[in-house]
Amino acid sequence: MDRMKRAAVIGAGFGGLALAIRLQAAGIATTVIEARDRPGGMVRGSARQGFSFDDGPATLTDPQAIHALWALSGHDLARDVELLPVTPFSRLMWPDGTRFDLSDDDPAMIREIGALRPEDAGGYRRFLGYAAAVSRDVRDGLGPHAFDDRAGLARAAALLARHQAWRPLHALASRFVRDEHLREALSIQALQAGGNPMTASALYAWLHKLERDGGVWFPRGGMQALALAMARLFERLGGTLMLGDAAVEIETRGDCATGVRTASGWQADFDAVASNADVVASYARLLGHTHRGRKAADRLARRRFAPSAFVVHFGIEGIWPGIPHHSILFGPRYAGLFRDIYEHGVLSADALIHLYHPSVTDPGLALEGMSSFTALVPVPHLGKLPIDWDGEGEAYATRILDHVESRLIHGLRDRLVTRAHVTPADLGRDVSAHLGSAWSLEPRLSQSGWLRVHHRDDAIPNLYFVGAGTHPGAGIPAVIASAQATAQLMLEESHP
Ligand SMILES: Cc1cc2nc3c(=O)[nH]c(=O)nc-3n(C[C@H](O)[C@H](O)[C@H](O)COP(=O)(O)OP(=O)(O)OC[C@H]3O[C@@H](n4cnc5c(N)ncnc54)[C@H](O)[C@@H]3O)c2cc1C
After folding, report:
1. Main-chain phi, psi angles of 90, to 5 degrees
2. I want to staple 380 with a disulfide (CB 3.0 to 4.6 A). Which of 210, 256, 385, 492 is the partner?
3. Which atom of ligand 1 is nearest to the CA of 286?
């Protein structure tokens, strides 16, 4: 291939933006083509009656990876976005009244464990040792690297064997600690990447270590403020950002991607094209005119996708300093609830609720004297539970508000100023997520590493992928790492 001078990135999710910043910083003239009128993808926000909400993730881990994007061009993230610390990282609450605060304050963590089962303190230290070893290997060996050769596969196999990666995370935690609450506290992180804690690999213990090492943060103005700052950084470097115009075709000639055409009729030629759009949609819609696209889409559609998420935003009167930024309200069941979500496609009467309270960290997100909250509930994706969410959403949102009122915010309904909800169907429509999945391909060993969508297409060598459907997977830290892997491959082509 001739030296790469012009590249297109389809989609301005965090993965697409991070890739575009890396390419542009390396001197490749890069155009980002985004269907929506705002960057950020699943990291999207909404505003209602003076309250601001995040519709997707509402905290940030691994801020170093974001700092690194600014540092590529000698810029400083702190000049563009203020990251506010979130403490505790999360408060876990069970129906039996048990509470547990996760944080990086070691003595406090040991005190919390002591209140559950003092004998588990030693086991927790050993769990942390395991998580630290995985974390080192993931960072140095696997995370931000593409699987494009046998050496990559050999590295992965050695790592999987060393850390007994076939063990599920909850089973691993159970080897170290005996208290069931603690086992849940140490395995729930798998869900951040879309994994079922009962079946996802023990390697996801590294997410606990990632939080302990790098902290948990919230950008002032919400996660959407960070997405906007990434887009501005890309433009400042000279990149071109096109919003509100969906790509409809990746043009090809033979086994080469030649350009991109959009819904408005705009067309341009590129030396390389990278898609950050959902992987099924990329192959089925953007490459549907090719044999390669149709075949890959069919194969992908038969694989297992992670669940979706139902989100309820509410603004209420009063301020609630006693409710931290992030609480997790566990239901009476753990394994059974995840079986309902991942296997049976059931909307259970009980639920696991991530309750975000962003205005306790950034009061500017609510009207004075008021508070903004978001309840996020993992639910089966549209393939497992094909219900009419447009019809059912309101009633389900009310059920979730009732749960929160009975468990934590008494008198919530009387204080309600505004409420809104976002359903799996909205997620499918808004960002073209296959089956409304919030995390793309489910993270299981059989769908990880080389077995996810490759960063470089197998048949079209100047076509690349970045984001949740690729290695290392879904979640903000992972898609930022995937951008590093994809950029590395593209830049090797550009400077052979
Ligand atoms: C409710 C919810 C909660 C979550 N919670 C967490 C969490 O706590 N922690 C965590 O780490 N992760 C969480 N995630 C997952 C995380 O948000 C995603 O894994 C990550 O944002 C995906 O980024 P991405 O770059 O792969 O792509 P996406 O964010 O999916 O962006 C893809 C972009 O491509 C655009 N696009 C699609 N088709 C086209 C087209 N034809 N032309 C142009 N543009 C197109 C879309 O509009 C979108 O902007 C959550 C997700 C959701 C939905």
Report:
1. -160, 150
2. 385
3. 41
* Domain housing 151: 123-212
Q: Is there a contact between 23 and 488 (Cβ–Cβ < 8 Å)?
A: no
Q: How far apart are CA 69 and CA 75, in angstroms?
A: 9
Which segments of 75-208 are extended strands (E)?
A: 83-85, 90-93, 99-102
**One domain for residues 205 and 128:** yes
Please state whether beta strands 326-329 and 353-356 pair in parallel, antiparallel, or not at all (unpaired): antiparallel
Q: Helix or strand or coil: residue 419?
A: strand
133-190 pLDDT tens trace: 999 888 776 666 776 666 677 777 888 888 888 999 999 999 999 999 999 999 999 9
Which of 477, 451, 479, 450 shows the shortest CA–CA distance to 278?
479
Q: Per-residue pLDDT tens for 433-478?
A: 999 999 999 998 888 888 899 999 999 999 999 999 999 999 999 9
Q: Which of 154, 180, 212 is the last residue of a domain?
A: 212
Same domain, 327 and 376: yes
Answer yes or no: do 324 and 420 share one domain.
Answer: yes
Its sign, for the CA torsion 423, 425, 430, 436, is positive
**Quick one: 292 and 342 in the same domain?**
no
Amino acid at 209: K
- Atom number of ligand 1 nearest to Cα 477: 11
- Cα separation, 208 vs 187, in Å, equals 9
- Verify that 321 and 419 share a domain, yes or no: yes
Mutation probe of ligand 1 site: the residue of 14, 42, 310, 479 with most atoms within 8 A of C-beta: 42
Measured by CA distance, the residue closest to atom 18 of ligand 1 is 475
Any domain includes 171: yes
Question: Number of folded domains in the chain?
Answer: 3
